[in-house]
Amino acid sequence: MNENLPPCPECSGAYTYEMGALLVCPECGHEWSLSVGAADGSGTAGEKVIKDSVGNVLADGDTVTVVKTLKVKGSPTGIKAGTKVRNIRLVDGVDGHDIDCKVDGFGPMQLKSSVVKKA
After folding, report:
1. CA 99, CA 35: separation in Å to the nearest integer?
2. What InterPro entries does its record include (predicted)?
3. In 10 A of CB 94, how many CB atoms?
4. Quick one: three-class SS letters along 73-118?
5. CB 95 within 8 A of CB 105
6. d(CA 61, CA 75)
7. pLDDT at residue 38, as a whole number
8. pLDDT per residue over 68-117, tens digit each?
9. Cα distance between residue 9 and residue 78, in whole Å
10. How far is residue 63's CA from residue 111's CA, in Å, rounded to a whole number?
11. What is the spatial distance between Cα 24 and Cα 30, in angstroms, rounded to a whole number?
12. pLDDT higher at 20 or 55
């Protein structure tokens, strides 16, 4: 089954498998998209391109705007749509949270790129 799948870009493990739209390495636990760097030719296999909710490519230090109201655990009010978040940092987070930032009034947290728009 794994003849057509590339090896893991992190550990070069040969036992990669598909899980939905992602490829997964059971040896090191790394997950990546097969189309990253291959579909548009803009990057290498190890380079991850993170896009916002409308398809703009995000980079470290960008300013983004939250596009929908978000619930925050432990807070009676959430982050309202339209809140600007400055100086983001792109990370390989848990459960799709790929933006590390500080939100005014809430402190440091991680956001998903699917709920922000580049400002």
Report:
1. 21
2. YjdM, YjdM_C, YjdM_N
3. 8
4. CCCCCCECCCCEECCCEECCCCCCEEEEEEECCCEEEEEEHHHEEE
5. no
6. 26
7. 44
8. 999 988 888 899 999 999 999 999 888 889 999 999 989 999 999 999 99
9. 37
10. 13
11. 6
12. 55
Tokens for 87, please give them: 């100086």
Output 64-71 pairs: Cβ under 8 A, ≥24 positions apart. 64/88, 64/99, 64/101, 64/116, 64/117, 64/118, 64/119, 65/116, 65/117, 65/118, 65/119, 66/111, 66/115, 66/116, 67/115, 67/116, 67/117, 68/115, 70/111, 70/115
Token output for 113 = 């790129």
Which amino acid makes up residue 9?
Answer: P
Residue with tokens 């391109």: 49
